[in-house]
Amino acid sequence: DVKVTQSSRYLVKRTGEKVFLECVQDMDHENMFWYRQDPGLGLRLIYFSYDVKMKEKGDIPEGYSVSREKKERFSLILESASTNQTSMYLCASRLDRANNSPLHFGNGTRLTVT
Amino acid sequence: AQTVTQSQPEMSVQEAETVTLSCTYDTSESDYYLFWYKQPPSRQMILVIRQEAYKQQNATENRFSVNFQKAAKSFSLKISDSQLGDAAMYFCAYRSGDYGGSQGNLIFGKGTKLSVKP
Fold first, then answer.
1. Which of B43, B106, B110, B115 could bond to B12 as cystine, CB 3.0-4.6 Å?
2. Which residues in chain B have their CB less than 8 angstroms from residue A35's CB?
3. A84 touches chain B (CB under 8 A)
4. Which residues of A touch B33 (CB under 8 A)?
């Protein structure tokens, strides 16, 4: 089974702090994704990566950046956390984009910015 | 741009009964894929079922089946013999068959919260 691990289940940070959300997958997947999930809004794509050192903006990239230095790890960075970034963050991976394989999700990180 | 609409924010079903969750989508493409994901209280999203648009036959996975109406752009999920463990958020998702750029990413609906009454 594919395992996607998000380093923190709950996180509380202060406004203005730099926040790192880490995600690791163990199945040599090429594609990795960061979503945020908010009630009534569903899942919205923040950033994604098709391969190491590659990154592309999703639908709501403002206020976020990402890093993918190794294939198995995809980090989401909040350069200066704000209260409107309080949300559930979900990481996902997929074998590659040419294959109709489903997304495999982590357990999510619930971030609260105070 | 493609959109996915789930018109039922919440649904409830009696244990052992059948329930249908609705999903409609908007696209001008002919080649695409549709998915239903389940998110239980544990928060991990789990794939329930998927459908390729070019297949006329409705997908089935044990107690889960879909009613795929391509012309109507409808993709409903039917859960038969509902169990307590089926209680979760259910998300419908669309993926383009064109894998270039961001087209291969999933577009999610806003979700339907399903409650199962004992």
1. B115
2. 108
3. no
4. 100
For the segment A37-77, what is each residue's pLDDT rounded down to a tens digit?
998 888 999 999 988 989 999 999 999 999 999 999 999 99
Q: Give the tokens for residue B20.
A: 């249908």
Residue B30 pLDDT class (50, 70, 90 cuts): confident
**Residue A70 burial (C-beta neighbours within 10 Å; 0-12, 13-18, 19+):** exposed
